[in-house]
Amino acid sequence: MRPQIDIDKIAKGLGAERRGKVHVTSGHFGAMQLVAEVQARFRVPAGGGRATDPSWTKRRLVPLAQNTLSRLEELAHNIEEKRHIHVDPMQVAALLLENITAQIADEDAEQIVDAARSSG
Amino acid sequence: MISPLDLRGLTIYINRVEELSLPEARRKRLLVVLFIPSVERDSVTEIDQDQWVDKALEMFGRVFGGATAFPRAKGIWRDDERGGKLVRDNPVVLHCYMAPEDMEKPHNQTSLGAFCRQMGRETNQGEVGLVINDEYLAITNLSED
After folding, report:
1. What is the dihedral of CA A98, A102, A105, A108, to 10 degrees?
2. Which residues of B touch A28 (CB under 8 A)?
3. Residue-number span of the structural domain to which B113 is assigned
4. Is A15's Cβ below 8 Å from some Cβ in B?
C-alpha cells in the first residue's frame, strides 16, 4: 500500500515541480524500467533549457501585442513565485492555447475572429 | 533421523532481534528515487558520475538512514532537435526507502533539495529528477537559495 503523504507540500519543500505519475517497482529490474520510462516521458531537451511536454513538436511564430506578452510574463512570474515552478512566458501561452482550443465552441471562435477583424 | 527421545535434549532458538527489527522495516515504506546523470545538459560532456553517486549515498545515509545505488542503466535516444543525432545517457538510479515522516520533515527536505540543486549546478544540468511515491518531480531552479 502506498504511504499517504502530501506530495504538494514535499514538492514545495524541495523546490520541485510535479511532472506526473510513473510506475515504480523495487529491485534492479524495477529501477531499470523506471529509467526507461523517465527517459521516454520526461527527457530534457538536448539543447538545454527546461523540460517540455514531448507532445509539443510543432513550432509556429505567433505575433503578439506588447501588453499580451507583458501579461504572459506576469503570469509566469506569479506562477514561479507562488508554486516554485519555472515556466517561460511562451510555455504559459502554449498551455493557455491548448486549454482554450480544447474548450472553445466553434461559434465563440468565429465571434472572436469577427470582432478582431472589425476592430482592426 | 532424530528419535522422539532425542528431541527432549534440543533447544529451540528464538531470534528476538529479527522480531524487533520488523516494525522499523514496516516504517520505511516510502520509496524515493534519485537519478544521477552521466553527462551534462549538452548530452556530450561527461561528468564525474562515481563521485556524485558517492556523495548522494552519503547524503541519503546521513539524512534518511541509507540508500542503494544500482549499476548504471545504458540508454540511447534520438535528438530530433539536433538532426536526429543519437545521444547516449547512462544514469545511475539510487533507491532510498524511508519513513514517510522523515520525508515530511522540513529540514530533511532542505537537505535533499540542496543536494539536488548542488548536483544540478555543478554538473550543469537542465533539471534534476526525483521520484517520490510514484510521482516524477523535477528540480529546475538550481540556484543556491
Report:
1. -10
2. 70-71
3. 27-139
4. yes
